[in-house]
Each structure stands twice: as C-alpha cells, then as structure tokens.
Design brief:
5 strands, five-stranded antiparallel beta sheet, alpha+beta
C-alpha cells in the first residue's frame, strides 16, 4: 500500500487537491501561502500548536478559516 492511499483511507474527507478549492462555487480568498492546483493537501478548521505552520490559509467566503498542509510524495 502506498503512503498516499494509506492517508486517504485514514483521513477520509480531510484530503483535497488544490484544484478542488479553485473550482469551488464559494468565494475563495487566500489569506497566506500559495495554493497549487495539482498538489494534495490535508485540511482542517483547527490550527494545532503541535503541527507545522500551514502551507495555505484560506476562507471560502463564509468566515470559517481553513488551514491546508501540502502532502509531498
């Protein structure tokens, strides 16, 4: 089993590609970082002190901030 497949099974809905956000019908506003369409990201609405700084911080127009960490393979 590849690490990518393992993460997808483990995290279920907490993985998305950058293009998913770019094609969204919501109003995308990038607060910090650069969103790359082909990159795979782990996303969360909570920023943990135990994790590295997020690669991208954004909002989809509803006021909720999402934090994205790029997954390198």
């Amino acid at each position: 089993m590849k690490a990518k497949d393992f993460l997808k099974d483990l995290l279920r809905w907490d993985l998305a590609t950058g293009s998913t956000y770019m094609k969204s019908s919501y109003e995308l506003k990038i607060i910090s970082g650069e969103l790359k369409p082909r990159s795979l990201y782990y996303f969360s609405f909570k920023k943990s002190d135990l994790m590295a700084e997020p690669d991208v911080t954004l909002t989809l127009g509803d006021g909720d901030i999402q934090y994205l960490w790029k997954i390198d393979f």
